[in-house]
Amino acid sequence: MAQANPTLINALRKTADKLKKGAPYQWGHMGSCNCGNLAQEITHLSKAEIHAYAMHRMGDWTEQTLEYCGTSGYPMDLMMTKMLEAGLSLEDLRHLEKLSDQSILRQIPIEHRYLKHNKRDDVVLYLLTWADLLEEEWLKTNPVDLTELYQAKTQKASLVKI
What we know:
With 162 residues, this protein is mainly α. It has nine helices and no strands.
């Protein structure tokens, strides 16, 4: 599971908010899929830049995480390094692409738990649930920064209602 921190929590919520508001989403496009949208938020690269980086090697996000080498110099690896520095793991990226992390899915009410990896609303629900889970973990060991967390909560409140 990702390393809980306010920056990552906010990136997850901002990504969900952008998707909810209609940001480009196409599961088969490396820059506007589940991972691609989060990568845009973390790296500040455009969907086109992310897609171009990914085309230097074969494979989707899952395959590229399996080939990741932090010293390769491949643009995709450099971008993934930024995501790892934000607190994610390669396994988190593989799970995000398929919406498959069981610890996240267990937090979703059973009647909504069977998510489709290529459905925008399901991606939004997954990202928000993940952000809540990380926030809960982070608050257990860190003093509360009410300003930062309130801002993130306010953004979340307008996103998804189950």
